[in-house]
Amino acid sequence: MNKLEYIETFINPDNDYLNELQKQNDTRKDIQPSVGLHTGKMLGLLIRLMEAKRVLEFGTCIGYSAVWLGEALKSTGGKLITVEFDKDIYSEAKENIEKAGLNSVVDLIHGDASEVMNELEGKFDMILQDSAKTLYPQMIEKCIELTRKNGLIIADDTLFKPMGIPEKFSAPMDEYNRMVFSDERLYSTILPIGDGATISIKLCD
Ligand SMILES: C[S@@+](CC[C@H](N)C(=O)[O-])C[C@H]1O[C@@H](n2cnc3c(N)ncnc32)[C@H](O)[C@@H]1O
């Protein structure tokens, strides 16, 4: 048993419907990979730690990470806004959020994250960036603006470069990491879970 498998013997999904979504993520070729079990659990832990009330996600897909986030926010009395670009995938996510019993916690928006973000008001406790990889560097400035002091910006898939993922996808991830690590408004690290999660705390108002 390797380290990851060992950890997996302890982690039970917070919502029963996550097993079904995980099965779909493992078998379907028509959807992009989810954040996975380890990152899902970490998101649930961070939301509880921060007692987060307002969380924003870019890139819902069929709703796996949204269910982890939503389930955690149910326990803190918070709400999730999550944005998905693809109309069919958005419809599936809507159904899945309902099946997971999280309709009252999750507000699912159909649209382009880079446009929707400009219509959002107020500050968020946490932003999860998991939409189109090329958008990460383009969207970071607005993400910083939308995050409260001591809030978190979490970006998934940020270890694409050392994983040898094609340049088209890994170059923006590398650029994103360089941007957040050199930004004095942020305090960042990268956790080697899933395909890499870059976590940045916003230090200023
Ligand atoms: C990696 S998947 C998200 C996985 C999901 N966060 C999870 O862990 O279950 C990326 C998703 O982002 C969506 N996407 C791509 N570009 C987008 C955009 N500009 N705005 C919103 N969603 C976008 C894709 O359609 C895809 O479903």
In short:
The protein has helices at residues 3-8, 17-27, 36-50, 64-76, 87-99, 113-116, 135-146, 160-163, 167-182; strands at residues 54-58, 79-84, 106-110, 124-129, 147-156, 186-191, 197-202.
Q: How would you characterize this protein structure?
A:
This protein has 205 residues and is an alpha/beta fold. The protein has a single domain (3-202), classed as Rossmann fold. Helix content is 46%, strand content 21%. The protein is built from 9 helices and 7 strands, in the order αααβαβαβαβαβααββ. A 7-stranded mixed beta sheet has the order 3-2-1-4-5-7-6, sandwiched between helices. α5 links the parallel β2 (79-84) and β3. α3 (36-50) packs parallel to α4 (64-76) and α7 packs parallel to α9 (167-182). The chain is globular. The relative contact order is 0.13. The mean pLDDT is 98. The protein binds S-adenosylmethionine (SAM). Residues 32-35, 58-59, 61, 64-65, 83-86, 89, 112-114, 130-132, 135 line the site of S-adenosylmethionine (SAM).
